Amino acid sequence: MQLKTDVLISGVQPEMLLCLMIIEPLFDEYEADMVITSCRDGEHSQNSKHKLGCAVDIRSRELDDSDKVALAQSIRAALTSEFFVLLEDDHFHVQFNGVGL
Ligand SMILES: [Zn+2]
Question: How far, in Å, CA of 75 to CA of 57, rounded?
Protein backbone atom coordinates (compact mmCIF):
# COMPACT_ATOMS: atom_id res chain seq x y z
CA MET A 1 0.00 0.00 0.00
CA GLN A 2 1.33 3.42 -0.92
CA LEU A 3 0.23 6.99 -0.41
CA LYS A 4 0.55 9.63 -3.09
CA THR A 5 2.91 12.14 -1.48
CA ASP A 6 0.42 14.98 -1.16
CA VAL A 7 -2.37 12.93 0.44
CA LEU A 8 -3.56 14.16 3.84
CA ILE A 9 -4.34 11.24 6.14
CA SER A 10 -5.17 13.20 9.29
CA GLY A 11 -8.64 12.28 10.52
CA VAL A 12 -9.10 9.13 8.45
CA GLN A 13 -11.55 6.95 10.34
CA PRO A 14 -10.52 3.51 11.68
CA GLU A 15 -13.19 1.78 9.63
CA MET A 16 -11.31 2.95 6.53
CA LEU A 17 -8.03 1.55 7.83
CA LEU A 18 -9.62 -1.85 8.36
CA CYS A 19 -11.14 -1.63 4.90
CA LEU A 20 -7.76 -0.87 3.32
CA MET A 21 -6.12 -3.79 5.11
CA ILE A 22 -8.84 -6.10 3.79
CA ILE A 23 -8.68 -4.97 0.18
CA GLU A 24 -4.91 -4.62 -0.27
CA PRO A 25 -4.42 -8.32 -1.15
CA LEU A 26 -7.00 -7.93 -3.92
CA PHE A 27 -4.72 -5.48 -5.71
CA ASP A 28 -1.89 -7.98 -5.38
CA GLU A 29 -4.01 -10.50 -7.27
CA TYR A 30 -4.04 -8.10 -10.22
CA GLU A 31 -0.36 -7.24 -9.75
CA ALA A 32 -1.34 -3.61 -9.31
CA ASP A 33 0.14 -1.25 -6.76
CA MET A 34 -2.47 0.01 -4.33
CA VAL A 35 -1.84 3.76 -4.37
CA ILE A 36 -4.12 5.98 -2.32
CA THR A 37 -4.53 9.26 -4.19
CA SER A 38 -6.94 11.07 -1.85
CA CYS A 39 -8.19 10.82 1.71
CA ARG A 40 -9.39 14.02 3.34
CA ASP A 41 -7.65 16.22 0.80
CA GLY A 42 -8.57 17.15 -2.73
CA GLU A 43 -11.57 18.63 -4.41
CA HIS A 44 -14.72 16.88 -3.29
CA SER A 45 -18.35 17.86 -3.05
CA GLN A 46 -19.69 19.67 0.01
CA ASN A 47 -21.29 16.53 1.42
CA SER A 48 -18.42 14.26 0.52
CA LYS A 49 -17.47 11.50 2.92
CA HIS A 50 -13.87 12.41 2.14
CA LYS A 51 -14.15 15.44 4.41
CA LEU A 52 -15.33 13.17 7.26
CA GLY A 53 -12.42 10.78 6.81
CA CYS A 54 -14.80 8.11 5.57
CA ALA A 55 -13.69 7.83 1.94
CA VAL A 56 -10.50 7.15 0.04
CA ASP A 57 -9.61 7.15 -3.63
CA ILE A 58 -7.30 4.45 -4.96
CA ARG A 59 -5.54 4.65 -8.32
CA SER A 60 -6.83 2.35 -11.04
CA ARG A 61 -4.78 3.42 -14.06
CA GLU A 62 -2.50 0.37 -13.97
CA LEU A 63 -5.46 -1.85 -14.75
CA ASP A 64 -7.20 -2.44 -18.04
CA ASP A 65 -10.92 -1.79 -18.20
CA SER A 66 -12.08 -5.36 -17.60
CA ASP A 67 -9.75 -5.75 -14.63
CA LYS A 68 -11.02 -2.46 -13.16
CA VAL A 69 -14.58 -3.76 -13.24
CA ALA A 70 -13.58 -7.13 -11.83
CA LEU A 71 -11.50 -5.61 -9.04
CA ALA A 72 -14.32 -3.21 -8.11
CA GLN A 73 -16.59 -6.25 -7.79
CA SER A 74 -14.01 -8.05 -5.64
CA ILE A 75 -13.68 -5.01 -3.37
CA ARG A 76 -17.47 -4.85 -2.94
CA ALA A 77 -17.60 -8.55 -2.15
CA ALA A 78 -14.82 -8.25 0.44
CA LEU A 79 -16.49 -5.44 2.38
CA THR A 80 -19.74 -5.19 4.29
CA SER A 81 -22.87 -3.44 3.10
CA GLU A 82 -21.73 -0.45 5.16
CA PHE A 83 -19.31 0.38 2.36
CA PHE A 84 -19.93 1.90 -1.05
CA VAL A 85 -17.49 1.29 -3.90
CA LEU A 86 -17.57 3.32 -7.10
CA LEU A 87 -15.37 2.87 -10.13
CA GLU A 88 -14.60 6.36 -11.40
CA ASP A 89 -12.53 7.46 -14.42
CA ASP A 90 -9.10 6.91 -12.93
CA HIS A 91 -9.72 5.60 -9.43
CA PHE A 92 -11.81 3.49 -7.11
CA HIS A 93 -13.80 5.55 -4.62
CA VAL A 94 -14.31 3.54 -1.42
CA GLN A 95 -16.61 5.01 1.18
CA PHE A 96 -17.88 4.01 4.61
CA ASN A 97 -21.58 4.74 5.24
CA GLY A 98 -21.76 3.29 8.71
CA VAL A 99 -24.28 4.14 11.38
CA GLY A 100 -23.74 7.35 13.26
CA LEU A 101 -21.89 9.26 10.57
ZN1 LIG B 1 -13.58 9.73 -3.78
Answer: 13
Q: What is the pLDDT along the chain (101 residues), one digit of tens a residue?
A: 999 999 999 999 999 999 999 999 999 999 999 999 999 987 778 788 999 999 999 999 999 999 999 999 999 999 999 999 999 999 999 999 986 55
The class level of CATH for 2-96 reads alpha beta
The CA 94 to ligand 1 mean position distance, Å, reads 7
Q: Which residues surround ligand 1, an ion (CB under 5 A)?
A: 57, 93
How far, in whole angstroms, is CA 22 from its chain's centroid? 11
Task: Enter the pTM of the model.
Answer: 0.92
